[in-house]
From TrEMBL:
Chain ranges of the Elp3/MiaA/NifB-like radical SAM core domain: 59-286
Cofactor(s) it depends on: [4Fe-4S] cluster
Protein name (Swiss-Prot/TrEMBL): DNA modification/repair radical SAM protein
UniProt KW keywords: Iron, Iron-sulfur, Metal-binding, S-adenosyl-L-methionine
InterPro entries documented for this protein: Aldolase_TIM, DNA_rSAM_put, Elp3/MiaA/NifB-like_rSAM, Endo/Exo/Phosphatase_dom_1, rSAM, rSAM_sf, RuvA_2-like
Organism: Sphingomonas bisphenolicum
PANTHER family per the UniProt record, alphabetical: ENDONUCLEASE/EXONUCLEASE/PHOSPHATASE FAMILY DOMAIN-CONTAINING PROTEIN 1, TYPE II SECRETION SYSTEM PROTEIN K
Length: 414
């Protein structure tokens, strides 16, 4: 193999990592080097937070250890049969790159994933060594996220959790049938078994910390996973149900959704074009409804199209649910409980908290609500205020047209 420079490897392996969406650094332990020892920080001045236009955090050094892989998953650009240029970092090269980027204030931490080389255990050993060296040899205080390998020895994954802030194991596809068809060398039972062990290790670590302050932290930012959307026949109902199940069983911090993207020299079993990116966005909105707004998977499934099983693309899922449950509305902004206000389309968590705080002092009028939110147009049919009642507006046949965002002409040179 031709020897590549570090810069050439970085170009290949950073580009190969772009398909991994789960790179946000929220929820970790606060650490810094103000005590005089160590390098880096997870907060404070001097940390650059950069976000892509789709909202994904890119302030991490996000790379693969290698894009070589012994597996042949149909949807993966780095699969064994793919004709792509291969590269591989050593553990020391990743450590040096991370420290160099951090000293230049380019990043706030490291997101490291990898293809499988030699074996799952060998690959996991290399990734653990990167995290161990950063923490122990260089006293790195920044954020570390390791994408772990479910087939690796549990002791190796445990070691990863002692050094990393967050661990993640990809479930890959929403359904077992889709996984068998597109990634036959991977096993959904083993993946969920590894996620379950991670949850147990995290709970054991939390119990130990409650008893002994000197007990080591284990993956303080929790675990996450990622699902590919649109590579198989799974509809949004199946995806939402799987995500809800993963949250309940494994106490995940996040489920990330990645719209399938066609790859060079694709397998014949893959779809010819990618799903709309807006579908990915709607799934993220439904995910927030489960995590912050009190909806369950069955309620969100009720907002999907009966024929396709997918969420509507022209309106958000919260509005779609409200339109199919008009008997729930309107709600009185001065009397309704927090749970009911959170279901009003157009009211976010912060706006509801402001309303609850303000109504302690006075009865709110529609103008008051308008000052506490970004837009009042969507709210009017669903709210009762001191000076406002929608009367028959909630039952009007053209309500969807009234509250849906207007169609917009696309810019030719956007």
């Amino acid at each position: 193999m031709v020897q590549l420079s570090t810069r050439a490897k970085l170009a290949i392996l950073a580009d190969a990592a772009k398909y991994d969406a789960s790179c946000a650094s929220s929820g970790t332990t606060r650490r810094d080097s103000r005590g005089g020892k160590g390098i880096g920080s997870t907060e404070g001045m001097g940390i650059c937070h950069a976000y892509a236009p789709d909202g994904r955090c890119i302030s991490l050094l996000k790379i693969l250890l290698t894009n070589s892989c012994i597996f042949d998953c149909h949807y993966c650009i780095n699969r064994r049969s793919s004709d792509v240029r291969r590269a591989r970092f050593t553990a020391q090269e990743v450590v040096d790159l991370t420290l160099s980027f951090y000293r230049r204030n380019y990043i706030e931490g490291l997101f490291l994933s990898s293809g499988i080389i030699r074996s799952s255990d060998y690959t996991m050993e290399q990734m653990v060594e990167v995290a161990r060296s950063l923490r122990e040899d260089h006293h790195f205080r920044g954020y570390i996220h390791l994408k772990t390998i479910p087939d690796a020895d549990p002791d190796l994954i445990h070691q990863a959790g002692l050094h990393a802030d967050r661990l993640s194991i990809n479930v890959e596809l929403p359904t077992e049938s889709g996984l068998k068809r597109l990634a036959p060398e991977k096993d959904g039972v083993r993946i969920e078994g590894a996620m379950s062990r991670l949850r147990s290790d995290m709970e054991d670590g939390q119990d130990a910390r409650r008893k002994y302050k000197s007990a080591p932290r284990f993956a303080p930012a929790g675990q996450s996973t990622q699902m590919i959307v649109g590579a198989d026949a799974a509809d949004d109902r199946a995806i939402i149900a799987r995500a809800s199940s993963l949250y309940d069983r494994h106490k995940l911090r996040r489920v990330y959704y990645s719209a399938f993207s066609p790859i060079p020299s694709p397998s014949a079993v893959l779809p010819l074009k990618r799903p709309p990116l807006l579908r990915e966005h709607r799934l993220y909105q439904s995910d927030w409804m489960i995590r912050f707004y009190g909806y369950d998977a069955q309620e969100i499934a009720a907002a999907t199209d009966a024929a396709t099983g997918c969420l509507p693309l022209d309106i958000d899922p919260k509005l779609a649910w409200a339109l199919s449950h008009r008997a729930t509305f309107p709600v009185d902004v001065n009397r309704a409980p927090r749970e009911a206000l959170l279901r009003v389309p157009g009211l976010g968590v912060k706006a509801v908290d402001r309303i609850l705080s303000s109504r302690r002092h006075r009865r709110l009028r529609l103008d008051d609500v308008a000052r506490l939110t970004t837009s009042i147009k969507k709210l009017r049919p669903f709210l009762i205020a001191a000076d406002w009642r929608p009367l028959a507006l909630i039952d009007s046949a053209d309500l969807r047209a009234r509250v849906a965002p207007p169609a917009r002409q696309l810019d030719l040179f956007a």
